[in-house]
Design brief:
Blueprint: H1 15-23, H2 32-43, H3 46-74, H4 81-93
Amino acid sequence: MCPSACNLSVRRTSVTDEITAVAGAEGKTPSRLDFNNREDFLKTGGVKRIVATIDSQIAMLTAYRKSLIHECVTGQRRITEADVSRAQNKRVST
């Protein structure tokens, strides 16, 4: 026989119990308004706007990178040893 310490009680949890567990010790559950706001955000193209913004930022950074490489190759911009060591230090610290 198993000692009393082995007795485990199994209980069914409801969705509310699971949400409460995820919400933390305060037991705050997301309100219906929160769910509606998220649904409205998704329906109005909020994700598409975010993706478009990120794509435009990537395009801008890519153009800046190409311009910087061109300036360095053509000698319009000089890179010193101090610049190289500063970049290496930043790479190591992150």
